[in-house]
Specification:
Blueprint: H1 3-14, H2 17-29, H3 39-49, H4 53-65, H5 71-83, H6 87-98, H7 105-121, H8 125-135, H9 139-155, H10 159-173, H11 178-194, H12 198-211, H13 216-228, H14 232-240, H15 250-264, H16 267-281, H17 284-296, H18 300-314, H19 317-330, H20 334-352, E1 357-359, E2 365-366, E3 382-384
Antiparallel strand pairs: 1-2, 1-3
Helix pairs in contact: 1-2, 1-3, 1-4, 2-5, 3-4, 5-6, 5-7, 6-7, 7-8, 7-9, 8-9, 9-10, 10-11, 11-12, 11-13, 12-13, 13-14, 14-15, 15-16, 16-17, 17-18, 18-19, 19-20
Bound molecules: zinc ion.
Length: about 400
């Protein structure tokens, strides 16, 4: 039976670009013998035509398993098992291949890499790391090994190792990983801030800014460290400096600016920052912070005017919610106050269901800002989601 017919169907059965690559690999390894297609070919083709992809795959896998002498096909099968979540089956297959006599060093490296992927998927990160370090000794496997090593170090929060592996990857691929490596330095900086090692944190922030001068996270951290050492004006300068290239981040630091202004005993610094940030971005969240500030400082009518404008012009649900809260507190009529509170309950419920942040890459939604998206693991891809109009 010629496995080429069966391997041909794998990409269609799995609907996967990865499997298409496997097919090309297998096709290169096989000569076209002109042999007639086997029964399994027609059987799986029939399943495919009736859109029963899982059954088609099962038939193909069963038939291809008989070609256990062919390393390329076995590697393709192992990868297929892993893609389908059959990690134990993939691991057993690859372990069997490693034990096979007669593999040349290149083939052994390929199998090691596959096995490392199995261990990674199984959560056995230490084992995976050890195999990858071995596989990386082969030049042709260095790049895929480093890719997976970086993922492992990220999972284990081993940021120094991640910096080393990503740095090597950056050199050999010529791809720009400096932005990601800057994030690793920020991770280290935050760790040092948490431990009270401020000079070390400062050093990490400095490295991050050398790699990525516009790194918002590093600039926020720089300001935090300046504030910690009492340099509040410099801190506010650092945060204000993001208005140009990271206006979306001004809302993330406004509470820090307020704390530094309070420490300096001059809230006008905070108000200036807030007004300039609103002028630069029109960010509704900043306008609501201004409302809170006005309401806290006895300017309720001014606060209401800002809210009314937001409701009228932008049909803003958060503004309506805040307005109802203020009105409920303002009235002496208990029935009207109860009505406001009832409406407030409805708007509050609707707001609580809304995520605040969204990844532009994978669409992951969450209530807080993540520098690394928990969904797709990309860095710098989540940002604040607009509140949207009332009827959204
Ligand atoms: Zn994402």
């Amino acid at each position: 039976m010629d496995p080429i017919w069966l391997a041909f169907l794998l990409p269609m059965a799995a609907g996967s670009g990865w499997l298409a690559a496997c097919y090309r690999k297998v096709a290169r390894a096989e000569n076209d013998t002109g042999a007639p297609a086997p029964a399994a070919y027609f059987k799986s083709l029939n399943f495919l035509l009736t859109e029963q992809h899982d059954k088609a795959l099962d038939v193909l896998v069963q038939a291809l398993e008989q070609h256990d002498e062919d390393l390329e096909i076995q590697l393709a099968l192992g990868g297929l098992f892993r893609r389908r979540g059959e990690i134990e089956r993939a691991t057993q297959l690859h372990q069997g291949l490693i034990a096979r006599a007669g593999l040349n060093p290149e083939q052994k490296g390929q199998v090691l890499l596959e096995l490392a992927n199995d261990y990674y998927k199984a959560g056995l990160l230490d084992r995976s790391e050890n195999l990858l370090l071995e596989a990386a000794a082969r030049k042709e496997l260095l790049e895929p090994s480093l890719h997976l090593l970086v993922q492992i170090y990220e999972s284990e929060k081993e940021w120094k190792s991640a910096i080393g592996a990503a740095g090597r990857l950056d050199q050999i691929t010529g791809g720009d990983l400096r932005v990601v490596i800057a994030q690793y330095h920020c991770e280290l900086a935050e760790r040092e801030v948490g431990a009270g090692n401020y000079p070390l944190a400062q050093a990490e922030v400095g490295k991050a800014l050398v790699l990525d001068p516009s790194c918002a996270r590093a600039r926020i951290l720089k300001g935090r460290l300046q504030a910690i050492s009492g340099e509040h004006l410099d801190a506010v300068d650092s945060w204000s400096g993001m208005a140009g290239d990271h206006p979306e981040m001004l809302c993330e630091v406004v509470h820090l600016v307020k704390a530094s202004s309070t420490a300096l005993g001059t809230l006008s610094l905070f108000l200036d920052f807030l007004n300039q940030a609103i002028a630069a971005t029109g960010d509704e969240r900043l306008k609501l912070i201004l409302v809170d500030h006005l309401a806290e400082n006895g300017s309720k009518s001014e606060a209401e005017n800002v809210l009314l404008n937001l409701v009228n012009e932008a049909a803003s649900l958060p503004a309506l919610h805040r307005l109802l809260q203020l009105r409920a507190l303002d009235t002496s009529d208990s029935q009207i106050s109860a009505d406001y509170q009832l409406l407030c309950h409805v708007t509050g419920k609707s707001l609580s269901d809304r995520p605040g942040y969204e990844c532009r890459f994978c669409g992951f939604q969450g209530r807080s800002l993540h520098w690394q998206c928990p969904g797709c693991r990309n860095w710098n891809t989540t940002s604040a989601r607009p509140f949207g109009p009332l009827l959204n």
